[in-house]
Amino acid sequence: MKLMKSKDFLEKYRQVYATQNKIMGTALFFTRDIERIPQYISHVMFKNNIIYENNIFISIIKSDSPFGIETSFTKEPAKGLKILEIRAGYMEIVDVEKILKDQGIGEKNHLLRSRRYLYQ
Question: What is the pLDDT of residues 96-120, one digit of tens each?
Fold first, then answer.
């Protein structure tokens, strides 16, 4: 899969977000990091014209320590786009559903994911 540079993605995202009709709700996209956007995300948003009012990129990052989980929204690079980082110890079993609920992201959100990009 071809990865898109963050700068190129954000430029196109801002343009599409400003001009396209948006679907009500929130879409969740799993990605390794936001510097290289997986092709499936750009395909969904730009080729299929599927863009939500709120779009959240979720990145699960393994830490060097065996235990501990930290979760935070790191930045909002564009209107309607947020980044949620989950930092987990390499021995942790991550309960993503619980983390999402704790962050106020409910079950009615649309989950768009590719297992290939879940972990770094």
Answer: 989 988 888 876 544 444 444 444 3
